[in-house]
Amino acid sequence: MIQIRKSWFELLKDEFNKEYFKKLQDFLKEEYSKYEIYPAEKNIFNALNHVSFDKIKVVIIGQDPYHEPGQAQGLSFSVPDNVEKPPSLVNIMKEIEDDLQVKCHPSGNLERWANQGVLLLNTVLTVRRGQANSHKDKGWEILTRKIIEIVGKREEPIVFMLWGSYAQSFSDLIGNQHLILKAPHPSPLSAYRGFFGCKHFSKCNDFLIKNGQTPIDWR
């Protein structure tokens, strides 16, 4: 189950030895053997495997993976190439285009962001097909809260994009050296309550430049 790059393993190895994680592993073994679970086991830690700890520039926190076939790839909000973009991702792209006056790539595969230092972290890393939140409260949240806490204590500045009240509940783990950007969730239910017009992407890049870092190409 633990297919994770060495730098992250070193940071999290104590968690992997704790009782809650052993119970989580037992639960996942049974789930993967009985049901269709997303993402594929090799992609569970995709978010961490794309961005090493020292290369993180931006953190975007999601909840759990997409639960329909072919969507989940272990990166929050992202779907593979040639898969229709879910509504929240459509709204994210719309805000980027309005904010930065650019045209986004037609693909919803956000590996292009991850490869630039954007940690696309869901707080629950697996889900049963067709059942949103089916792996909630099984132990993932303990691990991902620890990840956010570790990243939040890093000295080099990072931009945290916290969309919706759930993501914003992690604010207390984030140090003052970082930029916290808050807005409603980009889902169709809430995007019009302040996600549209939040200008998070230009604010993020301004902060990165100010701190001597290369801005993200959000297209």
Q: Overview of this structure, please?
A:
The protein has helices at residues 6-16, 19-34, 46-50, 87-100, 111-114, 140-152, 164-168, 200-210, and strands spanning 37-38, 58-62, 118-122, 127-128, 159-163, 179-183. The protein is globular and about 45 Å long. It has 219 residues and is an alpha/beta fold. The strands form 2 sheets. The chain has a 4-stranded parallel beta sheet. The chain has a two-stranded antiparallel sheet with strand order 1-4.
List keywords for this structure.
four-stranded parallel sheet, 219 residues, 6 strands, alpha/beta
Q: Which range best describes the helical content: under 10%, 10-25%, 25-40%, 40-55%, 55-70% or over 70%? A: 25-40%
Low-confidence stretches: none
Summing up helix and strand content along with how strands pair, one would put the structural category as: alpha/beta
Could you tell me the strand content as a percent range? Answer: 5-15%
Strand order of the largest sheet: 3-2-5-6
The profile of the biggest β sheet is: 4 strands, parallel
Mean pLDDT: 97
| C-alpha Rg (nearest Å) | 17 Å
Q: Tally the helices: what do you get?
A: 8
Order of helices and strands: HHEHEHHEEHEHEH
What is the overall shape?
Answer: globular
Terminal Cα span: 33 Å
The number of strands is: 6
